[in-house]
Specification:
about 210 residues; alpha/beta; Rossmann fold; seven-stranded mixed beta sheet; 7 helices; globular
């Protein structure tokens, strides 16, 4: 009896996930602020933690880095530590409440080399060739016009700079590796590194034009 109940709950979970995923594909949307707890759940911390993710992305010392879709700042503290005192991190999110949440983490950790910006991914408020690296973690599928966003990222990344896109399979906006690769190629990027496995992955691209 217990086994049947567990199997039934699992089936219900996957049906709900499928429904939300279809809805997210048809109508892309950012994770609502009221649901921000999803962004820092235990499952994510275990399989897709901040240290592992930032290592996949390739954030390093002295870099000028753009974190697009910073959300609650789950990755921000680790990313700021990786760039070091001579580097700088710019966190961009379209939701003001998310930026406020990230600011609290930044203040709690006494981090100074970070800028927090409320902006739309389709019109980034930065000059051409501004960043050594830009990364999106479970964000690309949330952007209604992701092709436009990737071209905008190409604009602000320096020639030869890196774009990193990571996905987690239980995210409703999950994008297949092949889809991300195709979109990035059309935006002027070439794949240089793949990390992760089935549940979570990161794709690093080089700006080629």
């Amino acid at each position: 009896m217990l086994v049947k109940i567990i199997l039934g709950l699992l089936a219900l979970f996957f049906v709900c996930l499928l429904f939300i995923r279809v809805l997210a594909k048809l109508y892309p949307f950012a994770c609502p602020f009221k649901a921000r707890g999803i962004l820092e759940n235990r499952f994510r911390r275990h399989f897709f933690g901040a240290a592992k993710t930032i290592e996949w992305v390739g954030v390093g010392k002295n870099m000028k880095v753009l974190e697009l879709g910073s959300g609650t700042g789950f990755l921000t503290v680790e990313a700021v530590r990786r760039v070091g005192s001579s580097g700088r991190l710019y966190c961009v999110d379209i939701q003001p409440d998310m930026v406020v949440e990230t600011r609290e983490k930044v203040l709690n950790h006494n981090l100074g080399n970070v800028d927090l910006v409320v902006a739309n991914a389709l019109t980034l408020p930065f000059k051409d060739n501004s960043f050594d690296l830009a990364f999106l973690i479970m964000v690309l599928g949330e952007i209604p016009k992701s092709d436009v966003a990737l071209k905008e990222l190409n604009r602000v990344i320096v020639p030869g700079g890196v774009l990193s896109v990571s996905e987690f399979i239980f995210d409703p906006h999950y994008s297949l590796r092949s889809t991300v690769k195709t979109k990035a190629k059309h935006a002027g990027f070439a794949i240089v590194k793949e990390s992760g496995k089935f549940f979570a992955y990161a794709l690093n691209f080089r700006k080629i034009k």
